[in-house]
From TrEMBL:
Keywords: Transferase. PROSITE patterns: SQUALEN_PHYTOEN_SYN_1, SQUALEN_PHYTOEN_SYN_2. Gene3D superfamilies: Farnesyl Diphosphate Synthase. It comes from the Bacteria. GO terms for molecular function: geranylgeranyl diphosphate synthase activity; squalene synthase [NAD(P)H] activity. This is Phytoene synthase. It holds the Pfam family SQS_PSY. The keyword Kinase does not apply. The lineage of its organism: Bacteria, Pseudomonadati, Nitrospinota/Tectimicrobiota group, Candidatus Tectimicrobiota, Candidatus Entotheonellia.
Length: 304
C-alpha cells in the first residue's frame, strides 16, 4: 500500500472515530482489514450527510449550493469507480470497492436519499418515509454486508429491514432537533391517525396523543427489527456481529426514550460510553456462544 493510500485510510479512520458515536463501538470486533474498509464506507456516507447538513457548503467550499456539492461528489464517485479518485475518502474507497466488489448503485441510492433532504420537509405517508429510510440507512447496511461476507440471500433482507428499523429510531430520537429545523419525518398520516396536528408538533406539545403516536412509531421500529431477525438462517449471525451491536445500541436508545414516556422534547436521548461498550461486549459474547458453544440452540433476540 502506497503512502498516499495509507494516509487516505488514516483519514477515514479519524473521520469515523470523530463522528461515529454509535457505530464506532460496533466496528471494534472486526478484523483490521474489514474494519479499515468499513471506515472508508462510513467516511463516504458521512461526507454525504455533511453535504445534506450544509457543513461542507459553509466550510470546505464557501458559496457552493448543496446541489452543486452533491453533483461534484457524484462525479467523485464516478472517478472512484474509474480508478481515478482525487479525494482522500475515495482514494481509500477505491481500494475497498476493488477488494469487495461493492455495487455502485448502492452509493447512488444513498445520494438520492441525501437529495430528498434537500427538497422534502414533510412525508405524507409511511411508504414515502420507508423509501427515504431505505436510501439513507438500508443501503449502508447492504454495502457493509458485502465487506462482512455472507452465505444466504436472507442476509440482504436482514440488512434492508434492520436499516429501516434503526433509521426509525433515529427519527424518534431526533424529533425535537428536526422540528426546530423546520423538518418533520413522522408521517403526516400517522399524526392525523392519532389526532396530533402538525402545529402541535411544531410547538412541541407533549400530550397523550403524542405519546400514543410515538408508541406506534416504536412498535413499527420493533416490527422491522423482528422481521430482520426472522430473515436469518442459523449461523448467519456469526458474520453479523457489527450490525447486531449497532441494533443493540439503537434499541437501548429506544428503551431509554420509552423509559421517559417518549418525552423527546426535553433533550436528546443518548447512552453513556460505558453502556455502549457493555452492550457491544455482551452481544459479541452472546453470538460467539451461540455459534461455538451452543451450535444446536435456536438463536434468541438479543436484549439491549
Amino acid at each position: 500500500m502506497s503512502d498516499r493510500v495509507a494516509d487516505a485510510f488514516a483519514y477515514c479512520r479519524e473521520v469515523t472515530k470523530t463522528h461515529a458515536k454509535n457505530f464506532y463501538y460496533a466496528f471494534m470486533f472486526l478484523p483490521k482489514p474489514k474494519r479499515e474498509a468499513i471506515y472508508a464506507v462510513y467516511a463516504f456516507c458521512r461526507y454525504c450527510d455533511d453535504i445534506a447538513d450544509g457543513d461542507y457548503a459553509s466550510e470546505e467550499r464557501p458559496g457552493l449550493l448543496k446541489t452543486d456539492l452533491l453533483k461534484a461528489w457524484r462525479q467523485e464517485l464516478d472517478n472512484c469507480y474509474a480508478g481515478q479518485p482525487t479525494h482522500r475518502i475515495t482514494q481509500a474507497l477505491h481500494h475497498v470497492v476493488e477488494q469487495y466488489d461493492l455495487p455502485k448503485h448502492y452509493f447512488e441510492e444513498l445520494m438520492r436519499g441525501v437529495e430528498m433532504d434537500f427538497t422534502i420537509r414533510r412525508y405524507e405517508t409511511f411508504a414515502e418515509l420507508e423509501q427515504y429510510c431505505y436510501r439513507v440507512a438500508s443501503v449502508v447496511g447492504l454495502l457493509c454486508i458485502e465487506i462482512f461476507g455472507y452465505r444466504h440471500a436472507g442476509v440482504r433482507e436482514y440488512a434492508r429491514l434492520i436499516g429501516i428499523s434503526l433509521q426509525l429510531i433515529n427519527i424518534m430520537r431526533d424529533v425535537k432537533e428536526d422540528v426546530e429545523a423546520g423538518r418533520i419525518y413522522l408521517p403526516l398520516e400517522d399524526l392525523r391517525a392519532f389526532n396530533y396536528s402538525e402545529a402541535d408538533l411544531l410547538q412541541q406539545r407533549y400530550t397523550a396523543e403524542f405519546i400514543a403516536l410515538m408508541q406506534f412509531q416504536a412498535q413499527r421500529a420493533d416490527d422491522y427489527y423482528r422481521r430482520a431477525q426472522a430473515s436469518l438462517l442459523p449461523g448467519d449471525k456469526r458474520g453479523l456481529v457489527t450490525p447486531e451491536i449497532m441494533a443493540g445500541i439503537y434499541r437501548a436508545t429506544l428503551h431509554n426514550i420509552q423509559r421517559h414516556d417518549y418525552n423527546v422534547f426535553t433533550g436528546r436521548a443518548s447512552l453513556p460510553v460505558l453502556r455502549k461498550v457493555a452492550i457491544a461486549f455482551r452481544i459479541f459474547l452472546k453470538i460467539w456462544a451461540e455459534t461455538y458453544l451452543l451450535p444446536h440452540r435456536k438463536p434468541s433476540f438479543p436484549n439491549a
